[in-house]
Amino acid sequence: MVIAVLEMIANIAAGFWDVLGEMAPYLLLGFVVAGVLHVFIPQKMVERQLGGRRVWPVVKATIFGIPLPLCSCGVIPVAASLRRSGASRGATTSFLLSTPQTGVDSILVTYSLLGPVFAVFRPLAALVTGVLGGSLVSAVECDEEVKTTAGSSCEDNCGLEATRGAKFSRALSYGLVTLPRDIGGALLVGLFIAALIGTFVPNDFLAGVLGGGILAMLVMMALGIPVYVCATGSVPVAAALIAKGVSPGAALVFLMTGPATNAAALATVWKIMGKCTTFIYLGTIVVTALAAGFALDFIFKFGGTVPALSAPTTLSTSFKSVSAVALLVILGFAVLKRSPYSGAAPAGETEALPDGEAVVLRISGMTCSHCVESVSRALRECPGVQAVTVSLQKGEGVVKGEDLDADELVRAVEGLGYKAAVSEYNAPNARVKE
Question: What is the per-residue burial (b if ≥16 Cβ within 10 Å, else e) of 189-217?
Answer without folding.
Answer: ebbbbbbbbbbebeeeebeeebebeeebb
